[in-house]
Design a protein that fits this description.
This protein is α/β, with parallel strands linked by helices. The chain is built from eight helices and seven strands. It has two domains: about 5-55, RecR Domain 1 (Helicase, Ruva Protein, domain 3), CATH 1.10.8.420; about 75-200, Dna Topoisomerase Vi A Subunit, Chain: A, domain 2 (3-Layer(aba) Sandwich). It is elongated, with a radius of gyration of 20 Å.
Amino acid sequence: MQVLPLPFERLVRMLAKMPGLGPRSAQRMALELLTKPDMLAELVRVMADAGTQIKQCADCGNLGVTERCHICCDDRRTGAVLCVVEGVDDVWALERSGVFKGKYYILGGVVSALAGVTPEMVGIPRLVARVRELGTEEVILALGASVDGQTTGHIITERLQTLDGVMVSSLAKGMPVGAEVDYLDEGTLRLALEGRRRVLGS
């Protein structure tokens, strides 16, 4: 016997796919939305607007409402220092620290042999081209301290060895083992950025 209406079950299953939401939380959220039609209608409208208006920056992969994000368009930001991160949420976390004044490159993931994710799939060749294009002098690896994050950092370092005059550094103190960048507070990120260590270059 079917206890819940099928459309409701579909809604719960879709919501449960969101990070941080399990089946029970998704069911409570779905019930809340369906008992408040005005809120549901507004959510549908806002999600539709986000889907049509938000674009991925052609230069760095950040989100914005134009072809190039506000950071890449800002003439006060230097391309001499490029910070490489895994996801958009990492950019937001680093921006909250108020320390970094360079530009970003968002991989959109990390290399993983187990998951079959290759360097090409996370845009590492495009990163090397971006470093050339900007005339970048320092690349900061702001990747998570996981095995895949560290592997990705090593691959990037190896690829950048072909470029002259490029120093590669990574976040240092303040970055706990196993931590992800987007979960760190502003003070920890400030220490990690200021205490970065050189991986390649002079």
